[in-house]
Amino acid sequence: MQRCVCLDETFDVAQCGNYVLLAQASVEGFALVVLEKVRRRFVAFAWCPVRVASAEDWSGAVGSLRAEVPWVQNSFSKVVLGYRGVRFAAVPTKFFTAERAKQLLSTAGPVGDLDEVHYCEPLGDVTVVYTLPAQLTYAWRMLHGDSLFIHSDAAALRAAASGKGKDAQLLLVSQDNFFTQIVVQGERLFSMLPLEAFTAEDLLYFCTAAVAALPGGGGATDLTVRMVGDGVAWPDGAQSVQTRQLRTEDVKTLLRRYYKVSDEPLVPAGYEYSYTVERFREGFPLIFLLAECVS
Which CATH code for domain 4-84+137-152+269-293? Predict the structure, then answer.
């Protein structure tokens, strides 16, 4: 998707201090949404495509964002930056201490030298520990020093847990090149794991294993599968410029044979979208879910 900036006529760029800035960083670019907190209304959307091939590219990517969307440099009442990395772990809050965050995360795999360890608390008894590229956080803090950093999948967990209904939900969140599987019932989290899947059958296998691990065997009739995002893509070979894709619709087609699959989008509850922003809700779901983290 090419660069785009869509502003509602009510959004006053000169009065950014009255608004909340939500930003979603990925290796493909930055998505921005402006939230009018009082009316709980999204009034601006921007997409700035960049290509981040290595950690050193983040500084230039943030610089490109500043040049392409100048008002992102303005002072906002609150700034939330979401990032979705594959290195994360969900742990019970009662067992978590900030001093042991890196040690806890290391149990899920090595923490890179150019990574920072962060954590957030999407639910009262769940803490998500995750890594952020240090070059990204450094460049972003130069822009907004008091930003709140969030793992984007934690925002999806919070939105699902705050929804109505007593049935267990299995979320499959996708962006870039991996899925995250989240199994939650009310505010009780059963699992939250990154998945490497190349076919719909791979995801069916992971879903079956997750359902079997639910209390009482987790009958499929008591569980709803919801998908967030359009799917994943990855290079077709180490040197290839071509990509392979696993699309959400293809996954849904297979999973519907075995599970109840919802087509209802996962959205933050109680928010309105201006007509200029509404059309981006389906293509960029994670950026809007960050509103769940605005208090």
Answer: 3.30.420
